[in-house]
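JOB MANIFEST
job_type = single_chain_structure
chain_count = 1
residues = 118
[input]
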Amino acid sequence: MPDFIYDKKIYYNPVEFAMDRIGGTWKMPLLWRLRDKTLRYSELKKDLPHITHKMLSSVLRSLEKEGFINRKVYPVVPPKVEYSITERGQKAIPIIVTIRQYGAELMKEFGVEVEEKP
C-alpha cells in the first residue's frame, strides 16, 4: 500500500491510520463506555476521573468529527448533551475487546494483578 495523506498527515500503513483514529489514552476507553448506552458528559467524566475536562472535551470532539460518536444537544436550560456510539464506532469494539484481552494477558505475564472491569 502506498503512502497516503489524510488531513494533512502522511500515513505509511493502515495500522498507523487506525491508531490515529482510535488510539491514545482516552479514545478507546470512551468508545468502550458508549458501546451499549448513551451517556451524558458528566457521566463520562465521573466514569473516567483521571481525565481532565479539557481532554475529555477534546477527545469527544475528535471522535465526533471522525464519525465514531454522535453528540445530541437538547435545547433546555441547563444544557443537556448526550453522546452515543455510531456504526463506525461499533466496528471498533471487537478490536478494543481484543486489545483489552491482550493487555490483561500481558499484565499477568509481567506479574501485575488484573482486576477485570466490565
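[summary]
Strands lie at 4-6, 9-11, 39-40, 69-74, 80-85.
Residues 10 and 81 are 34 Å apart (CA to CA).
exit_status = 0
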